[in-house]
Design a protein that fits this description.
The chain is 35% helix and 13% strand. It is of the alpha/beta class. It has a nine-stranded mixed β-sheet with strand order 7-6-5-4-3-2-1-8-9, covered by helices on one side. Helix 2 links the parallel strand 2 and strand 3. Helix 1 runs parallel beside helix 2 and helix 3 packs across helix 5. The chain binds iron/sulfur cluster and FE2/S2 (inorganic) cluster.
Length: 360
């Protein structure tokens, strides 16, 4: 078999510790404890190995990566390795001095999450207090440090009515990009699915709003739009295809093809404490299990889109069919598609249950 092409990006999950408790968190059900986190030198070695492997971008994420005191050291090291650096943060507890330090360390870009434009809702959807005010302040700090900014708006039945206001907020915050991403139901988010599931009418209206805003704001704000799988007819190419473009290193050093891969029960993940990133990328059984198209069942195997969407999402297939090797039910050709759509419609039509929050 020919060796795989190099990955494009590394998601460096520095910690699972987080000040927020968002009910749509996509992190695994079992979080890495602080004592198991990789040390600074271990992360430096991972970054060296990533650059050697051909990775171009590193996304520092969590949990909340600002909790790591060595974040600036790691950003600077990544820059020295020639990696483009992006910080994915809640912005909670960011200070002006820290924003300046991040910029001085060479950070290329920051992504800030936004739960809602309504202060009470922002606290409800983050499981925290004073969330909107702190995020407003964090956006100002990042822009004052001259960092390019993307706003991440995770959308669901509770905040879709505020989508227009989210777009205005992105402009007011000085963001150059807005990600309007409907909740993906992995990890903790799956537990809260019924509380988060929008109706088809909400989705259709959101699509109209985004289409109009893209035309109106062309040249001022780029809007990325991630549609929810449950109302789709074809799946997304999750992670650009399993083990094709991305790899994740979790806080304890496990190397994963996607952030939710640990939900797949019969899979062993190699760790950077035992093997190099390059060796894992090329030879790990977990990466090779669903790489390419050879593993696919019908109808994917004989489908002309098999190298477009790569059969969709393995973690979603597992969650909804019990088999990570099944066709993603988001595909209308899957035998489970009608059931998935009915689940969405039934959950969206019922009164929303209370959120189940997770505390670290
Ligand atoms: Fe994609 Fe498989 Fe559906 Fe074809 S059958 S569109 S490859 S998920
Ligand atoms: Fe794991 Fe899609 S989230 S493959």
């Amino acid at each position: 078999m020919r060796p795989p092409d190099p990955p494009f990006a590394l998601l460096a999950e520095l910690t699972h510790r987080c000040p927020l408790a968002c009910p749509y968190c996509s992190n695994p059900l079992t979080l890495a404890r602080a004592a198991s986190e990789l040390e600074t030198d271990e992360w430096r070695r991972v970054l060296d190995e990533a650059a050697k492997l051909g990775v171009l971008q590193v996304h520092f994420s969590g949990g909340e990566p600002l909790i790591r005191k060595d974040l600036e050291l790691l950003i600077a090291h990544a820059g020295q390795c020639g990696l483009y650096t992006n910080l994915i943060t809640s912005g909670m507890a960011l200070s002006p001095a820290r924003a300046t330090a991040l910029a001085q360390a060479g950070l290329d870009h920051a992504q800030l999450s936004l739960q809602d434009t309504d202060a009470l809702n922002a606290d409800l959807f983050s499981g925290s207090k004073n969330t909107l005010a702190q995020k407003t302040a964090a956006a100002a700090m990042l822009r004052a440090a001259d960092l390019p900014l993307t706003l991440n708006a995770v959308m669901h039945r509770g905040n879709l009515a505020h989508l227009e206001a989210m777009i205005e907020t992105a402009l007011a915050f000085g963001a150059g990009r807005l990600e309007v991403a409907h909740v993906q139901y992995y990890g903790w988010a799956l537990r809260n699915r019924a509380a988060l599931m929008p109706t088809r009418a909400q989705i259709d209206l959101a699509t109209q709003i985004v289409t109009a805003a893209r035309a109106r704001l062309s040249g001022r704000l780029v809007i990325d739009y991630v549609v929810p799988d449950y109302y789709a007819t074809r799946p997304k190419a999750c992670m650009g295809g399993w083990a094709q473009r991305f790899l994740n290193v979790d806080p304890a050093g496990n190397v994963l093809p996607c952030h939710a891969a640990q939900s797949i029960p019969d899979m062993h993940f190699d760790t950077v404490r035992e093997k190099s990133l390059g060796e894992i990328w090329r030879n790990s059984a977990a990466f090779n299990r669903f790489r390419g198209a050879g593993w696919m069942p019908e109808p994917c195997q004989s489908c002309e889109r098999r190298e477009v969407d790569w059969g969709g999402c393995r973690c979603q297939a597992l969650a909804l069919t019990g088999d990570a090797g099944a066709t993603d039910p988001a595909c209308a050709l899957s035998p489970h598609h009608a059931e998935m759509l009915a689940t969405a419609q039934n959950e969206a039509a019922a009164p929303a249950p209370d959120f189940i929050y997770r505390r670290y």
